[in-house]
Amino acid sequence: MAESAAIAVRDLTKAYTATTGLFGVSLDVSLGSVMALLGPNGAGKTTVVRILSTLVRPDAGSVAIGGVDALSRPDAVQAMIGVANQSAAVDEKLTGRANLAMFARLHRLPRTQARVRAAELLELFDLTEAAGKPVKSYSGGMRRKLDLAVSLIGHPSILFLDEPTTGLDPASRLALWEVIDGLVADGTTVLLTTQYLDEADALARDVTFIDDGRVIARGTPAELKSRIGGRQVDLTPASPDLVAPLARQLAGFEVTSGDRALHVSIGDDVADLRRLLTAVDVSGIALADYSVRTPTLDDVYFHVTGHERPADTTDSSDGSGAATSEAAAKEVAA
Ligand SMILES: Nc1ncnc2c1ncn2[C@@H]1O[C@H](COP(=O)(O)OP(=O)(O)OP(=O)(O)O)[C@@H](O)[C@H]1O
């Protein structure tokens, strides 16, 4: 294990079937940093979190949490970690305050200290006003904040956040990001899974992509984005029927096609852009729209997984756009 690794995982294997589960996943998360574990549905993210948080035993491999072997000393690991997921065991009928006090008691805090810890966390998550209301009356955002608050009761030094902001509105997401940033600034190590790649970009120092139970790419967000090229150019022809003909005309470029637009990876040089626009000109195909942007983690995601984008937009937060090539996937994963 590297000296500063809060989480060190080697060759983790958990085969549910011959093709589902985890097959040799390794990762290191440095002390006081955020690692985002990303991948499509069924990739194995939750299985990693469940093994690391000692809920599931792997078939093979090793897991060290804070330097402690999680497989032989799960109790010691449980004392250092917090886990927040959507199935947190809060009692809907109890108030937010009562839930936190109850979990604090489960952490063996004496009654008075349990109340103090509950009040601290209600304050941290801006839930003090709603503290006396039953959880079933909470909005989705308040509920997710409470889930996270519960995971923090024991002052964990290592936190597992499994899709912490799923279903939240943008303001609630940003509020949770701020809380997470604050925890990390105070030295907490976070392993985060999320479907929102902009969330990973905003919070994580390192990113690991997994698919079909295997690591397919890893690096900092900046490294991963730089590997797929200096600029992404989105070209929307005047009609969707013209997407395929334009793609054929641009065969010399690294092009991925969606329903309504083409996405072209080019270098940083202005000459690259000029060359592309000249080729579009030569094709004689009119554009309804175009944009030039730096790559996002969404672009990386579609490149490394080879998955088709569901629709065409260029918004980095919703991951829509175009299909991508196997060759590009291999290049980024290398
Ligand atoms: N207890 C289990 N028994 C059998 N198969 C399982 C079990 N848990 C997970 N799997 C399978 O293992 C694979 C990985 O599941 P996992 O929940 O870890 O993926 P994920 O990346 O978290 O997906 P999602 O984003 O949909 O939550 C899936 O094919 C899933 O069906």
TrEMBL record:
Domain of life, per lineage: Bacteria
Compositional bias ranges of the Low complexity kind: 313-334
Gene Ontology, cellular component aspect: plasma membrane
Gene Ontology process terms (BP): response to antibiotic
Compartments where located: Cell membrane
Region entry Disordered, spans: 308-334
Membrane topology designation: Peripheral membrane protein
Keywords (A to Z) from UniProt: Antibiotic resistance, ATP-binding, Nucleotide-binding, Transport
Domain ABC transporter: 7-237
One example GO MF annotation: ATP binding
InterPro entries given in the database record: AAA+_ATPase, ABC_transporter-like_ATP-bd, ABC_transporter-like_CS, ABC_transporter_ATP-binding, DrrA1/2-like_C, P-loop_NTPase
Protein name as annotated: ATP-binding cassette domain-containing protein
Lineage: Bacteria, Bacillati, Actinomycetota, Actinomycetes, Micrococcales
